[in-house]
Design a protein that fits this description.
- GO terms for molecular function: transferase activity.
- Keywords: Transferase.
- This is Glycosyltransferase involved in cell wall biosynthesis.
- By secondary structure, this protein is α/β, with parallel strands linked by helices.
- The protein has two domains: 200 residues, Rossmann fold, CATH 3.40.50; 149 residues, Rossmann fold.
- Helix content is 35%, strand content 18%.
- Strand 9, helix 8 and strand 10 form a beta-alpha-beta unit.
- The relative contact order is 0.11.
Length: 364
C-alpha cells in the first residue's frame, strides 16, 4: 500500500517541527507496512526524515508512480485545491483530514486577534472574512463531486459539527463517508510517565506553538502569574506578546520550539500544566501532557469536555482569571497522584483506526 501525503508544511530535521501531528501518523503507517511518500508543498528540495521520503511538487510532477491512496491534511486553496483540480482524476482513493482552519470562519469560530498582530488589523480581518467564505464556497461543490471516491476524517465531534454548519454540507452530501478519529499523541508520550519528585523548579507550565494567538489564552496565563506572585510560572513558545504585555517577574519565558525530549524534561520539572484555550478542535499538546499523568488545568468549554473527559488528572476552569482558584485546584489534583493513564489517544484508538480505513479502501 503506497500512500501519498499532501501537506502545506512538514517537519525538517534541525529546522522546524511544524505539522508534527502528520509525521506521527506517517511513521506509524510506515512501521506497519505501508510505503509513505510526503508531498510537502513548502519544500524546496527533497529530503528524508525518519526513513520517510519527502518530495517537492516539482519532483512529483517528474515522477510516474501509482499511489493507492492520496491523503490530504489541512487542505488549503493555494496548494491542495489547485493540486487536486489538476491531478485528482489520476487517483482512485482520496482521504481528507480536517484539523481546523480549512473549514473555519475565523471571525466566528476564534476569539478576536490581539491588536498588535497583523491578524488584528481591520483590513486583514475583513480580507480574512472574505477569504473564509470564498474557500468554503469553493470546497463545498468540490468535496461533493469527489465524495464517491473520498473519505472525510474529523479530529473531534465538535469540529465535525462545525464543518457541517460552516460548509452547509451534510453526511449525505459526502456519501456518508465521514469518520471522527482523534489525533494520536504518538508512541513517545504513550511510553512516558510523569515523575512525581518533590523538588520541582516550576509550579506551573504552559507550552504553546504560537503565543500571539489569543485562542491559546496566553494573556490569561500572564494574568494568573500576576495573581499568584509567590508561584513560579514557565511559558514556552515563540511570539511577540512580550513586546506588548509586561512579563511578570515570577515568569520564565523560553522563546523557542521544543523537541518531545526537551518538552518532557520541562514537564517533569513542573507541578502542574496550565493549558487554557478559548477555541480548539482537539488540543493535541494538552492531550500529550495529560497522557503522561501530569496534573493539568484547562478551560471549561465544549470541545474540552469531549476531549479531556477521560483524564482524571485534568480540571476544567472558567475562562475568567478572577474565578480561577489555582491553589485549591492544584491541591485537589495533587491528592490524586499517581493517576491511571487515559489511553484514549494511543495508537490503538486513533492511528490504528486510520490504517483499518485505508486497508478497507484497498480491499473493497
Amino acid at each position: 500500500m503506497h500512500l501519498l501525503i499532501l501537506t502545506a508544511f512538514y517537519p525538517i530535521p534541525g529546522i522546524t517541527h511544524e505539522r508534527m501531528f502528520v509525521h506521527v501518523r506517517n511513521r506509524y503507517y510506515q512501521e506497519h507496512g505501508a510505503k509513505v511518500t510526503v508531498l510537502n508543498f513548502a519544500a524546496k528540495d527533497n529530503y528524508t526524515i525518519d526513513n520517510i521520503n519527502v518530495i517537492t511538487l516539482q519532483e512529483f510532477e517528474q515522477r510516474d508512480i501509482h499511489y493507492d491512496i492520496v491523503i490530504s491534511h489541512s487542505a488549503n486553496v493555494r496548494n491542495h485545491y489547485l493540486f487536486l483540480k489538476k491531478y485528482e482524476k489520476e487517483f482512485e482513493n482520496l482521504v481528507f483530514f480536517f484539523h481546523g482552519h480549512e473549514a473555519s470562519i475565523f471571525a466566528k469560530d476564534y476569539p478576536e486577534p490581539y491588536k498588535f498582530t497583523k491578524d488584528g488589523k481591520i483590513i486583514k480581518r475583513t480580507c480574512q472574512l472574505f477569504y473564509d467564505h470564498f474557500k468554503l464556497n469553493l470546497w463545498r461543490p468540490f468535496y461533493k463531486k469527489l465524495a464517491k471516491k473520498s473519505q472525510y476524517v474529523f479530529v473531534s465531534d465538535y469540529f465535525y459539527k462545525r464543518v457541517q454548519k460552516n460548509m452547509r454540507i451534510t453526511p449525505a452530501d459526502l456519501s456518508e463517508h465521514c469518520h471522527v478519529i482523534h489525533n494520536s499523541i504518538g508512541s513517545f508520550f504513550e511510553n512516558k510517565d510523569y515523575e512525581m519528585k518533590t523538588d520541582k523548579k516550576y509550579d506551573y507550565i504552559s507550552i504553546r506553538s504560537n503565543l500571539d494567538a489569543p485562542k491559546y489564552g496566553v494573556d490569561q496565563y500572564i494574568e494568573l502569574a500576576n495573581k499568584y506572585p509567590e508561584k513560579r510560572f514557565l511559558l514556552i513558545g515563540k511570539g511577540e506578546i512580550f513586546d506588548y504585555f509586561e512579563k511578570p517577574q515570577n515568569m520564565e519565558w523560553i522563546n523557542h520550539t521544543l523537541s518531545h525530549e526537551e518538552m518532557l524534561g520541562y514537564l517533569n520539572n513542573a507541578r502542574c500544566g496550565i493549558m487554557l484555550t478559548r477555541s480548539d478542535t482537539q488540543g493535541v499538546m494538552t492531550c500529550e501532557m495529560a497522557s503522561i499523568g501530569m496534573p493539568i488545568v484547562s478551560s471549561d468549554i465544549e470541545v474540552c469536555h469531549e476531549i479531556l473527559s477521560c483524564f482524571p488528572n485534568v480540571a476544567l476552569v472558567p475562562n475568567d482569571v478572577e474565578k480561577i482558584e489555582l491553589n485549591s485546584i492544584y491541591e485537589k489534583l495533587a491528592m490524586g497522584l499517581p493517576y491511571d493513564k487515559c489511553k484514549k489517544y494511543y495508537a490503538e484508538g486513533t492511528i490504528q483506526k486510520e490504517m483499518k480505513l485505508f486497508q478497507s479502501l484497498i480491499t473493497d
